[in-house]
Design brief:
The protein has about 180 residues and is mainly α. Helices cover about 75% and strands about 5% of the residues. The chain has five helices and two strands. It has helices spanning about 1-40, 45-70, 90-110, 120-140, 145-180; strands at about 70-75, 80. A hairpin with a 5-residue loop joins strand 1 and strand 2. Helix 1 (about 1-40) packs parallel to helix 3 (about 90-110) and helix 2 (about 45-70) runs antiparallel to helix 3. The longest helix is centred in the N-terminal third of the chain and has 37 residues, at about 1-40. It is elongated, with a radius of gyration of 30 Å.
């Protein structure tokens, strides 16, 4: 039964990697043919630089996903490991996102307008947000051991004071009840 699940995951990974490869290769070829060959007169250095950076990032992400998803076989050809599950979140989902953004950029800028290169700013904007929200902000506002100790003592003294005030109120209520 476990072998069936491994084979199924290996097949799913192979299908997904093949789909990503076709999408990335097709969009890259479309961009090169339409934008850099047929309309090369309007392509300037910035277009070449944006294409180089975007394609390098996308192909790096694709190769990383292909490596992560690669199955492992033993000497006899028996499937030992099906590779990582690409449908899980984490780094693999970010790799997918970079590939999808690159495919969109290549197709849209080849067919529509160079202004759509501005969509590429989504990736560093999200990376900056994630770095700030998940790394820098918690690092800034995490109390040190001394601050944690001071906060603990302050909470304990407040709790003791509240307990003492409650006891005094109960005693005062008992005295009032006896006088009446």
């Amino acid at each position: 039964m476990a072998g069936g699940k491994l084979k199924k995951r290996a097949d799913e990974n192979a299908t997904r990697v093949k789909l990503l490869h076709r999408a990335l290769l097709g969009s890259t070829l479309l961009f090169v043919l339409l934008r850099l060959v047929l309309r090369r007169a309007t392509a300037h250095l910035l277009i070449y630089a944006l294409f180089a950076v975007t394609s390098a990032a996308a192909w790096f992400c694709y190769r990383s996903l292909a490596h992560i998803a690669a199955p492992t076989y033993d000497r006899d050809g028996v499937l030992v490991d099906a590779g990582a599950d690409l449908s899980l979140g984490g780094t693999t989902s970010y790799y997918h996102d970079v590939i999808y953004v690159a495919v969109f950029l290549f197709v849209s800028t080849a067919l529509v307008s160079d202004w759509l290169w501005l969509v590429a700013l989504v990736v560093p904007a999200y990376a900056t947000y994630a770095l700030w929200a998940w790394v820098i902000l918690p690092w800034i506002f995490t109390p040190t051991a001394d601050e944690e100790e001071a906060n603990r003592r302050m909470r304990e003294s407040k709790e003791e004071r509240k307990a003492r005030e409650r006891a005094e109120r109960r005693a005062e209520n008992r005295r009032r009840g006896r006088r009446m």
